[in-house]
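ok so i was messing around last nite and threw this chain in just to see what happens. nothing serious, just curious
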Amino acid sequence: MKNGVGAAPTLLSLFALGLCWAAGAAALQDAEVLPGPVAVWAVIVAEAADGALWEHILATLGRVAAAFTLAMGLGSLVGILLGRSRILEQWLFPWVSVFLNVPALVVIVLCYLWIGLNEVAAIAAVASNKTAMVAVTLREGVRSLDPRLSEMAQIQRMNWSLRVRHVLFPQLWPFVASAMRNGLAVIWKIVLVVEFLGRSNGVGFQIHLYFQLFDTTTVLAYSLSFVAVMLIIEYAVLQPWETRARAWQSRSA
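result:
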């Protein structure tokens, strides 16, 4: 994997983690507390064959995608405005700080109380938790823009669209990539909490269900299945995209 961690070390590291898990389960010898990888894998296969695993994973991915898109769009807009205007920053950044420090659980509960136990409340709760983080990241990106490049664009009489495409976006891409990676890592965890507390499907709902049944094996099966999905997105999509985004900095250095 160019400019990143190779596939072999990554796979070997995950394999070593699995061995540690298997050794811990064998030493404990209590499947109700820590089932082994083989037992969890058997549940994953059974749930996948039944179709339930895919149904709940897709439900969770839909919420993650909706909340992620909303948070990135709104957070990027707010961050760029804060970075460009000192007056707006003085008035609006305290609001951003409040949202940064309000616990996610509080936001989730309030959204369910105010909006109801529905999809709108679930997605709004998740997106509002991440929007402030994106805004802060993009604000720093705007502040780091090289004024010499803007002066060059003026000298070359570049129109607005060309400035955005060739001057603004290349400098902001690394910050956007960082916001995307961190945002996705946070959002999917919050989505599981949202589903745990108030939805009737999704991985979080299944974890809640089998938690009530004290079924550790199935809880781990659903948890690790979705972790695997997010790892695929991380290594197949986000890391290569971030590498391309940061290539501009290497060429300009």
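not much to say yet. DSSP finds ten helices and no strands in the chain.
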